[in-house]
Write a structure and sequence with these properties.
Mean pLDDT: 90
Distance between the termini: 38 Å
Shape: globular
CATH superfamily: monomeric porin ompg
CATH architecture: Beta Barrel
Strand order of the largest sheet: 1-2-3-6-7-8-9-10-11-12-13-14
Helix content: under 10%
Low-confidence stretches: 1-21
Order of helices and strands: HEEEEEEEEEEEEEE
Number of domains: 1
CATH topology: Porin
C-alpha cells in the first residue's frame, strides 16, 4: 500500500506539473543539447527510492525545482530552488528541505553537427551543514534515430562544513552513467535504457562500495512546449543501505 501511495503521488505530480520543448532523452544521464541563447525553461524533478536490504519498508521522495537559462549558444545556467524530501523508514517519518544550488554547462561541440558532442558540467549545492561540488564530462552523439550518451562524474560532499564542529566528513563519488535511446515515429517518443555506476570513497582515500542501477528510459514531447522523461532503475549490486529500486521523472516546459 505504501508503494501504491508513492506511485499515486508521482502520478499526481505528472498531471499537475506541465513541463520542455528541448526534451531530455534520459532521467539520470545528461545530454549535450544546449538550451540556446535567450531560451529558458522550468524543470521539475521527482525521484523515488524504495526498499533496502537493511529496511524493507524504506521509501523516500526527493523533489527538485529548477530554472534553466540559455545565456549563450554554448552555455546554460541552471538555478535550483531549495530541494526537499519526504522519507519513511524504520527510524520514522520526516520531511526536510535539503540544499539549493546552481549548475553551469559549457558545450564544446554539438552532438548533431559535429563528430561528437562534448560538454563540461559544474554544480554547487549548499545546505545547512553541507556543501556538494559535482563535475561531469558529457559525451553525446546522435546517429540517425539513435541517441548515445556517457557521463563521467566526480562528486565531493562535505558534511558539517558550516557547523562549529571541527570534524568535517568528506565523501567522494566517482560515477559513470550511460544511455542509449531510439526516436520512434516523428521523434516525439524516445525509448531506450540507461545505467548508473557509483563508487564511494571516504575522504577520497578509502574505497567503500560500488552501486549499479539500470533500467528503461522513456521520453515524450509534444514537439513544441513540454516534455516528460521517466527512468525506473533496479539495483544490480548488493549494497545493503542503498535502495533496491529507484525511479526518476523529470518534467519541463519551455518559456
Amino acid at each position: 500500500m505504501i508503494q501504491l501511495r508513492f506511485l499515486s503521488l508521482l502520478a499526481i505530480l505528472a498531471v499537475g506539473t506541465v513541463v520542455s520543448a528541448d526534451p531530455r532523452p534520459f532521467a539520470f544521464t545528461y545530454d549535450a543539447y544546449p538550451e540556446g541563447k535567450g531560451n529558458w525553461e522550468y524543470e521539475q524533478y521527482a525521484t523515488w527510492r524504495t526498499h533496502t536490504r537493511d529496511d524493507s519498508n524504506f521509501n523516500r521522495l526527493d523533489f527538485r525545482h529548477a530554472f534553466e537559462f540559455g545565456l549563450a549558444d554554448n552555455f546554460d545556467l541552471e538555478v535550483y530552488l531549495p530541494n526537499w524530501f519526504y522519507e519513511d523508514s524504520a527510524a520514522g517519518h520526516r520531511t526536510r528541505f535539503d540544499t539549493a544550488g546552481v549548475e553551469g554547462i559549457v558545450y564544446l561541440s554539438n552532438p548533431v553537427t559535429d563528430f561528437i558532442g562534448l560538454g563540461i558540467y559544474n554544480e554547487v549545492n549548499i545546505g545547512e551543514e553541507e556543501l556538494e561540488i559535482e563535475h561531469k564530462l558529457l559525451v553525446h552523439k546522435d546517429i540517425g534515430n539513435w541517441t548515445l550518451a556517457y557521463n563521467l562524474i566526480v562528486e565531493t560532499e562535505f558534511e558539517g562544513v558550516f557547523s562549529n564542529d571541527a570534524d568535517v566528513e568528506v565523501e567522494g563519488v566517482l560515477g559513470h552513467s550511460f544511455g542509449a535511446s531510439y526516436s520512434v515515429g516523428h521523434g516525439n517518443l524516445r525509448v531506450g535504457a540507461e545505467a548508473i555506476v557509483e563508487s564511494v570513497y571516504e575522504n577520497w582515500s578509502r574505497y567503500e562500495d560500488t552501486t549499479i542501477y539500470a533500467g528503461p528510459a522513456i521520453s515524450y514531447s509534444d514537439g513544441k512546449h513540454w516534455w516528460v522523461t521517466v527512468t525506473p532503475a533496479f539495483q544490480l549490486t548488493s549494497v545493503d543501505d542503498e535502495a533496491d529500486f529507484t525511479m526518476r521523472m523529470i518534467f519541463g516546459i519551455e518559456f
